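Known limitations

Files may contain more than one protein. Parsers should not assume a single record per file. Below, a two-record file is shown to illustrate correct handling: read the sequence, read the token line, then continue until end of file.
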Amino acid sequence: MAPLMENVPVQSPARATIRARTESDADPLVAMLAEVHLSDAYPMMATHVSREWLFDPGFEAAWVAAIDGIPIGHIAVKSGYGGAAIERASGRPTAETLGVTRFFVGKAGRGTGAASALLDAVDNFASERRLALALDVVDFNAAAIAVYERRGWMRVGSEVAQWFGPDGPHPTVYLYIGPHSS
């Protein structure tokens, strides 16, 4: 009979803390985004692996997940997100909806609870302002889809994305509203 493994210390991953994004986060976030682009094709276009893409002045707010002060993930929200499917499902006009964007967790942050903690930050932000949350995700990003659905986000439609103009690419994206958005 094998001996019992009592009182064996178990190494659990460090928990992420969430804070507002700062200018000093730019370099580590862009480096992490480059890693995520190579492993997960997010963002789809390599030209979006940039400070300008992450620090869009149109964002309402942005947060960083960090362990020991080192960024391991990012999320932002933008006002006025929507469209017909999202408005129908949420019962709210686009002006009352925040779009979740630039959401990613680097390899060092996976399994730490960073993704859920970042989503908690946007949930709280939207709730305090009585706004709905919505997002779109490319159909091939199964890991992100699983996170959203596990947290109660509801798929309300799909469409062919036109982000890149007539020359494409034109991926299919699934549209979701947050669990407290309808």
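...continuing to the second record:
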Amino acid sequence: MTEYTQNKYKFQHYYSKKPSSPFKKKTVEINLSNGIKLFFVTAAGVFSISRVDRASKLLIEHCEINTRGSLLDLGCGYGLVGISLKKKHPDIDLYMSDINERAFTLSKINARDNNIEAVIREGNIYEPWNENKFDSIVLNPPFAAGKDVWEKMITEAPSHLKKEGRLNVVAYHNKGGSRIEKIMETVFTNVRTLVRSGGIRVYVSVKL
């Protein structure tokens, strides 16, 4: 691979609709707190291709959700968070979406390979879910996509939550998380921190 090609792929972010980097698959694994081990197929052009990122794992282990309700994994990537939560809580009705065509394909593969039933759609932010309301939404914001994208994911969340539905967001507090916390407080009039670990926090707001 030439230096030019490497640089071209380097500056593509994972929220692109059509990644042009080579579709070379890798496998990562996660060990859940209940002892379950899961394997996921990843590839270049999606978020965290070589390992399970710490923020997503914290979100999986500490989010506050309705374990018998509907759950949307927004910007799902290869499906790590949603599929892991469904394995932990089998009574969840799982929904996942991402604008990235490659992420969409991988999330379908990973749901199938991990024997998970899920409704998976391709599209930007909440466009695939115009008529849907959920009991819970989980989000690891795509900061690489820019402020307009991740802020909209938060500000439009109440329109896609049922009453007493919860939005869970994970972020590094000093790298955008403090801003997210303020927006959640403004939009929902409430926000709590569920866990702090190594600069990462999981925030939750409830639709009142």
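Parsers that stop after the first record will miss the second one. For reference, the second record is described as follows. The longest strand covers residues 161-172.
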